[in-house]
Amino acid sequence: MMNITPLVIYAAAMVAYGWHFTERNPMVGRTATTLLIFAALAHTFVIGMLTMDVGHVPVAGATSAISTFVWLLALAYLYIELTTDERAMGVFILPLLVSLQAIPALRPGVEDLAPVLQGPLFGVHVSSLLFAYASFALACVIGVTYVLLFKEIKAKHLGFFYARLPSLQVLDRMNHVAIVVGWVFLTIGIIVGAIWAAQAQGGYAGDPRVQAMSLKDPKIIVALVCWLVYSFELFAARRIGWGGRRAAYLSTLGFVIVLLNFVPISYFFTQSHNF
After folding, report:
1. Residue 39: which domain range?
2. Which of 95, 113, 131 is the last residue of a domain?
3. Residues 6+ apart with CB under 8 A from 162
4. Contact 94/17 with Cβ under 8 angstroms?
5. How many structural domains are present in the chain?
6. pLDDT tens per residue, range 146-192
7. Would the pTM of this model clear 0.70, i.e. be above it?
8. Is CB count within 10 Å lower at the N or C end of the chain?
9. Distance in angstroms (rounded) separating the CA atoms of residues 246 and 57
10. Exposed (0-12), middle (13-18) or buried (19+): which is 147, by Cβ within 10 Å?
11. Rounded CA gap, 151 and 135, in Å?
12. What is the distance in angstroms between the CA of the first residue and the CA of the last residue of the chain?
């Protein structure tokens, strides 16, 4: 039930960001930022209480991992907003925070760290992936805003989005930085996960979940597909000059794959990552 408080404040911040995006009222913008800060603080308190209760950062279960991901995404977005003084992307970020936080708020899970999950490698594996997913979420939002602004400029109708969003060049650069950071942490998470899985299969071979850790598991397959998509995006940007809209579309495609892997596959299809 503790996750409901951050959800309510995130929802209030979402309304405020929507109001600010429409009206461009500075006071409403400051109110939106303040609400998001309070939501992040409340979420920090919840995660801190859960950490004290179970003895580790709550990332072992799918539900708790989603909550921790929402927290990291909120902090990452707040950092960007406070360092750039640009609130326009909040109207796109907050609906994602609210929809994902609704899962742990309405369907709380039990955080039970199985013996196979104890150890530093598992923590590095999960933390790296969650940070990567948060970076990819930001890249997706930046990509969506890029496409919206591009279409408005192409139509020679400089109005709603043109007056509210950063320039195309700034958005493209922000998208690239977010993808690079996310790719680095995704790569680290996959490599460390492979090492951890090899060790787990040596010490916990009788655990059916450990036995299922192979390339046949949907969770692992989709994670590798995600890595290939973002690797191609970085290669295309560097070698064949794919930027702008193409990068924005690839960022959106990549994050759709991330969400597919993060929610439905984690809950219903994987046999090795259902801890």
Report:
1. 1-113
2. 113
3. 149, 152, 153
4. yes
5. 2
6. 888 888 888 777 767 777 777 888 888 888 888 998 999 999 999 99
7. yes
8. N
9. 37
10. middle
11. 25
12. 21
